Amino acid sequence: MSARPRSAGSGPGRDRDGGGGRSGRIVRSPLGWMLAGVVGVGLVAGLTATGPGPVPVLGAVAAVAVYCCVMRRVARRSTPEVTGSGAGREALLGGGIGLGFILVSALVVTAFGGYSFSWAGDGFVSVIWSAVAVQIGAAVTEELLFRGLALQALEKLWGSGAAIVITSLFFGVAHLGAPGANVLSGVAIVLEAGVLLGAAFLWRRSIWFVVGLHFAWNTTQELLGIPVSGHTPEGLFTVDVHGSAVLNGGDFGLETSIVPVLIGVALAVSMLVLAHRNDGIKTRRRAGQ
After folding, report:
1. How many angstroms separate the CA atoms of 289 and 275, rounded?
2. Euclidean distance between CA atoms 217 and 264, whole angstroms
3. Sign of the dihedral defined by the CA atoms of residues 86, 92, 96, 98, in that order
4. Looking at the predicted structure, is the pLDDT value of residue 13 above 70?
5. Mind listing the pLDDT tens digit for each residue in 256-275?
6. Which of 70-74, 201-205, 225-229, 230-234 has the lowest mean pLDDT?
7. What pTM was computed for the model?
8. How many other β-carbons are positioned within 10 Å of the β-carbon of residue 122?
9. What is the DSSP string of 240-271?
10. What DSSP character marks residue 225?
């Protein structure tokens, strides 16, 4: 008796090799590749974020490589948000906005008597190098996690609006474990950081624009001696706080102050308007196509 030839489109070998099985479909779903990327990039961040010297920068490079690998091999999509042309220009533009955001916020708080600064006088070059290295690592890994992976995956499932709300909430929750954090600081991070950085990505569709904004934001605070999300830095200046925590942000730092919250929300709204004009806001139906 002759055996019936096996169909070329069925069988366990087809599922394993072609990725057509149920497990392959799950992994390649938006939530699947988001989780795979979060594990990979998160592991790199955990191993390198607090390392000495250039280790955080090397970690950032490794995190980008992991991100691209997950997107191309698991999600089966290109990565124009990372590998597109004009990365340097986007980073500089984002950096300029982040620098202006923090300098204006700190200036307003100082003008109303919330801050006073004095020169720290300790190791100019070493302080700058340390701040730059650490904040490059933090900005790159956090933006790959929250805007590169989470926002894009959730946007694919439910559209831009739901994606920016969910990622902003998670960004606020992620900062609740920082020194001096409380409910108010969490809300402030959601509004001025989560929404602003999400809006920045929807507007420019470039990770490097958001990384530049995030990097300049944190580095400027650190060099001014202002706590960065509750962590007191070794900056070029030391800062004394005066008056109400509503103005100066209290122990958590400038990010809890009402001043950057209002400025950040205004910037976010402006970026969302620009994103809408550029057809960068996707509805659930459009995102799923």
Report:
1. 19
2. 11
3. positive
4. no
5. 999 999 999 999 999 999 99
6. 230-234
7. 0.90
8. 11
9. EE-S-HHHH-GGG-GGGSHHHHHHHHHHHHHH
10. T
- Of 135, 114, 97, 119, nearest to 254 by C-alpha is 114
Sequence-distant (6+) residues with CB within 8 A of 247 are 109, 112, 113, 114, 257, 258, 259
Element of type H or E holding 279: none
- How far is residue 7 CA from its own chain's centroid? 47
Under DSSP, the state recorded for 229 is: T
Q: Which amino acid appears at position 164 of this protein?
A: I
Question: DSSP E strands: which ranges in the chain?
Answer: 115-119, 237-241
pLDDT at 85: 84
* CA 218/CA 171 separation, integer angstroms: 15
Rounded CA gap, 260 and 49, in Å? Answer: 26
Residue range 16-59, pLDDT digits in tens: 444 556 766 777 899 999 999 999 999 999 999 989 999 999 99
How far CA 221 is from CA of 23, 118, 214, 235, 258, in Å, comes to: 45, 14, 11, 8, 16
The residues near 151 (Cβ < 8 Å, ≥ 6 apart) are 163, 164, 167, 198, 201
Six-digit token pair at 145?
A: 């996690």
Q: How far apart are the first and last CA of the chain?
A: 49
Positive or negative, the CA dihedral 218, 270, 189, 61 is negative
Residue 41: C-alpha distances to residues 65, 146, 205, 213, 258 (Å): 9, 11, 20, 20, 33
**CB 269 within 8 Å of CB 281:** no
User: Which residues touch 26 (CB under 8 Å, ≥6 apart)?
Assistant: 32
Query: Does residue 6 carry a pLDDT above 50?
Result: no
